């Protein structure tokens, strides 16, 4: 990971350095701090260096010193693995809001004609450190100008060693142009986490989610947190607007969640046809054709006591949804826009 920000107060110790400390500490254990010494408790016993008198001086191959070097190398590797897989590293959350960190892009996978899944490496098996619904800020450069945009990782919040971001590329989009030039192995600059949603289980009896396109990203974080908590009895009703059936993102994941008693999803497709949908849809998909207008919102999102509505889409989608919801009687205090 490349720490390229200016603020040295924060995140100034790289994970690589922590792991590399093993190399130094095994040479000179007394240099370790007390806390570092505690970490070494789990290490296997260090090989004992032969005395000069242990060598017979006959030029044996391998010599006792060669064997010692091999043993030492293996021991270092084992210590490194313990350090990487151990609690100290895995419990670390690497993100920093004040400073951009470079994360290595490890894969790019097409999801639809214009949306791609980008996976980034987090060294040492650490976690990103996001809460449900939070996003991160990407820094890019185009025509020698620095630009920033927000994105919401869709990988599990507890994922260790990687994070995934689902990004739609727009033909005229500035950051989209920058992202199109990414290659596997590039270091990409992110900082965070940001976001004001603070999800508390069982506060609302029902959460209605209105999402459009990649606006599904923050919803998936909240859905996962609710469904993975057996004590959380919140009902989730997702209304997901896309252009066509093929544009539905994270469909497999949504199908899997549909098996939970407290989750349901309805798709609203603005540019699809009856013929296509009949051919491609799964038997238990609920699909509406047309735009998510005032009439449809009043049917799908009736005013619910102890309910909350989450909205994430384009600026115009968000604005339209808030207007439709107000007509139905929803108050702004029960509406959250990502
Ligand atoms: C909190 C938050 C989280 C976000 N998370 C994600 C995410 O996980 N994945 C993701 O792909 N995007 C996400 N976005 C949107 C993202 O930040 C950018 O706005 C988007 O990638 C477009 O940036 P751009 O520089 O390519 O386009 P810009 O240069 O900003 O825009 C150029 C043109 O592209 C079109 N355009 C741009 N954005 C949109 C849009 N959202 N809908 C329709 N047309 C648009 C418009 O015609 C616009 O005039 C998020 C936004 C916010 C605020």
UniProtKB/TrEMBL annotation:
Required cofactor(s): FAD
One annotated GO molecular function: cytochrome-b5 reductase activity, acting on NADH
Pfam families: FAD_binding_6, NAD_binding_1, Oxidored-like
Annotated EC: 1.6.2.2
Binding site for FAD: 149, 151, 166, 168, 175-176
TM region(s), chain numbering: none
Keywords: FAD, Flavoprotein, NAD, Oxidoreductase
FAD-binding FR-type domain segment(s): 98-200
Reaction(s) the record says it catalyses: 2 Fe(III)-[cytochrome b5] + NADH = 2 Fe(II)-[cytochrome b5] + NAD(+) + H(+)
Annotated InterPro entries: CBR-like, Cbr1-like_FAD-bd_dom, FAD-bd_FR_type, Flavoprot_Pyr_Nucl_cyt_Rdtase, FNR_nucleotide-bd, Oxidoreductase-like_N, OxRdtase_FAD/NAD-bd, Riboflavin_synthase-like_b-brl
Domain of life: Eukaryota
Family: Belongs to the flavoprotein pyridine nucleotide cytochrome reductase family.
Protein name: NADH-cytochrome b5 reductase
Organism: Lingula anatina
Primary gene name: LOC106159640
């Amino acid at each position: 990971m490349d720490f390229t920000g200016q603020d040295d107060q924060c995140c100034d110790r790289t994970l690589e350095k922590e792991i590399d400390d093993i190399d130094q500490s095994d040479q000179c254990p007394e240099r370790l701090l007390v806390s570092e010494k505690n970490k070494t408790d789990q290490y296997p016993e260090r090989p004992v260096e032969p005395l000069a008198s242990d060598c017979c001086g006959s030029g044996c191959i391998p010599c006792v010193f060669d064997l010692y070097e091999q043993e030492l190398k293996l021991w270092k590797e084992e210590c490194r693995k313990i350090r990487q897989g151990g609690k100290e590293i895995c419990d670390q959350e690497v993100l920093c809001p004040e400073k951009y960190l470079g994360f290595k892009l490890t894969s790019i996978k097409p999801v639809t004609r214009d949306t791609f899944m980008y996976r980034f490496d987090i060294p040492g098996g650490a976690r990103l450190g996001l809460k449900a619904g939070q996003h991160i800020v990407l820094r890019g450069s185009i025509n020698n100008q620095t630009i920033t945009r927000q994105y919401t990782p869709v990988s599990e919040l507890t994922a260790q060693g990687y994070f995934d971001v689902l990004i739609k590329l727009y033909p005229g989009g500035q950051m989209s142009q920058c992202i199109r030039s990414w290659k596997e192995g590039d270091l990409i600059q992110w900082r965070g986490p940001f976001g004001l949603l603070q999800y508390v289980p069982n506060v609302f009896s029902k959460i209605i989610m209105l999402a459009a396109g990649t606006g599904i990203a923050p919803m998936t974080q909240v859905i996962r947190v609710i469904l993975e908590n057996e004590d959380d009895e919140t009902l989730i009703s997702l209304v997901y607007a896309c252009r066509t059936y093929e544009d539905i993102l994270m469909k497999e994941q949504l199908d899997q969640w549909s098996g939970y008693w407290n989750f349901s999803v309805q798709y609203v497709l603005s540019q699809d046809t009856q013929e296509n949908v009949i051919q491609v849809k799964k038997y238990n998909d609920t699909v509406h054709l047309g735009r998510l207008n005032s009439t449809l919102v009043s049917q799908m999102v009736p005013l619910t006591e102890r309910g909350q509505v989450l909205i994430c889409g384009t600026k115009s989608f968000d604005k339209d949804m808030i207007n439709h919801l107000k007509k139905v009687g929803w108050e702004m205090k029960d509406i959250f826009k990502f």
